[in-house]
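Dear H.,

Thanks for agreeing to be a second pair of eyes. The structure we're designing against is below in token form, covering all 547 positions.
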């Protein structure tokens, strides 16, 4: 009886995005409803769950005369009516089959008393649409996915205002409710895409309901959801507001239902994203001096594991745009990469967006070099794909058994790469031109930054934290190069692969049996952690993230 929803085959439930709402969140959502609508809200308001499934979201509600439940599948209707026979607090006449995204309200399926409420503007103000809608979307690319799952009458009617959000079923529920059931309350479990997603800018421009309250819970506490991201319970008042959603403070609960704090949730519609900021700096794909690349993958934490610096000729995320790295944009690359990687992804920050920074980072050379060192010891460069330009030491420093194919990185660090002399000449010319201009024209930080190249013309100076990383890394490289048949061009990735090996599935093992390697790697990770903590405050200071 507790899980009669499972009578509907699992594959059918997954295909339609229909999942069980845990009792812990059902109970908490009803408490939030009482907080906003009043202690006697169940007697003063009507409730319609138009995505009821087998009706578990309605458990705990007491006034069965004010509750209606509809669902897409007749199977679920039969299960709910069977539950009523076993004590569920619903009226059989209030349980019905209805396709909310396709059926008209006056199609004859709605009970007469519910239809009368919908058609009466005064009564409709007392209607609460209480739902955990299906979460399925059309695939982004050709391949396995729920093709045409987004096709509906609502999609066809409101596609223009939905924008890219029309691919998602739950957004279509929001849209019909807002456009056709004005002034109702919408109590809904939803991902934060609706508030923060870049693809929902068009949606937020027309959906101007007022978000009264919100709490966040881990998604993996919901039935058959494995992802590490927040699901919010949101209580909206659908009266049209002057402004679209901008921000709110959400209550945060852990998987046990304990409140653990608050989180500021904001839309980013008036800001520029980090990918927009870095994109103009990318080299052309046919540039002669490319040392690596990384793919453009979203602006949020959920895509961070896809952002990897790889060799130019390595095929990785081919469907995404590629950022090609040269000496001219290496510092910008390091800043981008370190900012995205220095803060661990959690279920709570999963949808937080990385933004274009203010100009402060451009004159903070310690921040730049800290990011460079962080990137040198965090990338996925592999020498098997071609020349390794990312070796951070000279042959003499690590007692290499043979000469390196490339000295690019140590030359860059020393201010001696081929682009350095060109940069010196350009700076001299720019300085000469600046002297001819009035001070009014050259005073701003942005103006100076536009004239500044980030290719070093003198040896870089490193912070104590960055120096400690170099020192720990140097010992690890030395130990590797003391091994028989060591590859002189080995990257950090290659060194780890050498000592850790791979399992039967081809994945690198997480551990090694070599005690000295384990000790040296531990020292390097400890130094990297201190460097990471040095970078994190700057991420917020320069506006890459908003706290």
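And this is the sequence the design step returned. I haven't edited it by hand at all.
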């Amino acid at each position: 009886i507790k899980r009669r929803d499972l009578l509907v085959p699992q594959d059918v439930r997954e295909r339609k995005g229909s999942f069980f709402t845990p009792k812990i969140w059902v109970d908490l959502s009803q408490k939030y409803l009482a907080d906003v609508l009043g202690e006697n809200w169940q007697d003063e308001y009507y409730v319609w769950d138009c995505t009821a499934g087998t009706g578990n979201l309605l458990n705990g509600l007491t006034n069965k005369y004010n509750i209606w439940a509809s669902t897409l599948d007749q199977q679920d209707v039969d299960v709910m009516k069977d539950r009523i026979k076993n004590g569920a607090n619903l009226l059989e006449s209030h349980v019905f089959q209805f396709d909310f995204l396709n059926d008209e309200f006056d199609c004859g399926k709605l009970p007469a008393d519910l239809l009368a409420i919908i058609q009466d503007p005064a009564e409709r103000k007392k209607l609460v649409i209480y739902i955990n809608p299906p979460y399925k979307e059309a695939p982004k690319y050709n391949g396995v996915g729920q093709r045409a799952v987004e096709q509906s009458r609502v999609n066809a009617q409101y596609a223009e205002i939905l924008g890219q959000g029309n691919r998602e079923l739950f957004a279509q529920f929001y849209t019909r409710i807002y456009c056709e059931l004005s002034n109702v309350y919408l109590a809904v479990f939803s991902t934060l895409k609706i508030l923060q997603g870049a693809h929902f800018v068009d949606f937020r421009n027309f959906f101007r309901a007022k978000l009264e309250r919100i709490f966040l819970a881990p998604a993996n506490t919901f039935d058959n959801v494995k992802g590490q991201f927040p699901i919010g319970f949101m209580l909206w008042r659908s009266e049209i507001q002057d402004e679209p959603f901008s921000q709110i403070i959400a209550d945060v609960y852990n998987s046990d239902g304990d409140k653990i704090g608050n989180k500021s949730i904001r839309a980013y519609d008036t800001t520029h994203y980090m990918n927009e900021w870095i994109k103009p700096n990318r080299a052309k794909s046919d540039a002669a001096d490319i040392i690596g690349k990384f793919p453009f993958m979203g602006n949020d934490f959920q895509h961070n594991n896809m952002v990897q610096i790889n060799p130019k000729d390595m095929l990785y995320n081919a469907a995404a745009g590629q950022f090609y790295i040269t000496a001219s944009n290496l510092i910008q690359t390091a800043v981008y990469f370190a900012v995205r990687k220095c803060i661990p992804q959690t279920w709570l920050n999963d949808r937080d967006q990385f933004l274009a920074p203010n100009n402060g980072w451009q004159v903070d050379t310690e921040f730049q070099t800290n990011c460079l060192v962080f990137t040198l010891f965090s990338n996925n460069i592999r020498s098997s794909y071609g020349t390794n330009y990312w070796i951070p030491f000279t042959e003499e420093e690590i007692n290499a058994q043979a000469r390196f194919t490339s000295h690019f990185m140590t030359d860059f660090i020393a201010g001696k790469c081929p682009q350095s002399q060109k940069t010196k000449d350009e700076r001299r010319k720019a300085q000469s031109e600046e002297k001819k201009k009035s001070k009014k024209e050259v005073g701003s930080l942005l103006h100076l930054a536009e004239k500044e190249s980030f290719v070093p013309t003198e040896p870089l100076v490193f912070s104590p934290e960055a120096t400690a990383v170099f020192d720990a890394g140097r010992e690890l490289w030395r130990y590797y190069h003391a091994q028989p048949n060591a590859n002189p061009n080995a990257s950090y990735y290659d060194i780890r692969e050498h000592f850790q090996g791979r399992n039967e599935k081809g994945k690198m093992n997480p551990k090694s049996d070599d005690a000295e390697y384990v000790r040296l790697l531990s020292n390097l990770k400890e130094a990297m952690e201190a460097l990471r903590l040095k970078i994190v405050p700057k991420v917020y200071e320069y506006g890459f993230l908003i706290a």
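Two observations from my side: The longest strand covers residues 210-218. DSSP finds 20 helices and eleven strands in the chain.

Warmly,
E.
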